[in-house]
Amino acid sequence: MSEPLRLLSVGAHPADIFDQSGGTMAHHVSRGDEVGCVVLTHGARVHDAVISAEMFHRDEVPEGSELEEMMKERSDVKVEEVRTACNILGVQDVLFFGADDAVLLVTPETVKRLARVLREKRPDIVLTHFPKEGDGLTNAHAVAGQIVMHAIGFANNVDPGDRNPPHRVAQVFYFGAGAARLRSTLWDSEGGYYNDVFIDITDVIDRKLASLDCLVSQGYSGAYARKRIETNDGAFGVAAGSAYAEGFISARAETHHYLPLTDLALKQARSSDHENINRYTYRLPTD
After folding, report:
1. pLDDT per residue over 67-100, tens digit each?
2. Which of 107, 141, 112 is nearest to 127 (CA)?
3. Which one in 184, 191, 203, 220 has a CA-CA gap of 20 to 30 Å to 138?
4. Residue 50 neighbours by CB under 8 Å, 6+ apart
């Protein structure tokens, strides 16, 4: 592209905005594109070291008001972790909706709020969850993807009280992780979804690891971060012909003036089998 692009990553939970697309966002920031993020829920119930882990083994949890205060404190911790993680990737613009992650539903209020963000930020590309991830009904990631798609549709129209003009998003890329990986549940049998876009993030994989290490509150730091990168980004990398990659599912087909051919595809075609193997077997140091 000859002009800078605007990207917006929308996740259901705090970690979602970058653990599946952090390397991609880092690339676009480095290129001079505008990259922003929206976190729909506070995420205090999900994987949290106190609310999720410690409470699980107690005889009883604190009474309502005390528990709500604890959740507020934990959500504040997550906000700071996410801001620090995104800063490592070069992303400064992060908006937190703060919705309770107990039951995430498609509601007019959330859709309209996000649509207003879209009219204000005017992103060319939106990154978000696949709307049919898991069972497509109760899966919070899937619901988040559905909220985003409703908001994208509504952003095309005017909304009384919003002075920003309508905005049309050029392309949506769904996170590949959780939607087009290995089948592991009954709902995956609906499948057939596949990653048609891979972004080689080998050059920024150390920064993505550092960002995951910030998520101490939900146990993502340390060994888990390294395990996740090897099993997710490493597997995507093998499929893409690189050491590490992030996979995406594009929402719609694209039109080109010429047949598209990436630099990596041409490089692979002009390399021997051993050269290609050496390229994607590089492993991030675990120290």
Report:
1. 999 999 999 999 999 999 999 999 999 999 999 9
2. 141
3. 220
4. 70, 74, 217
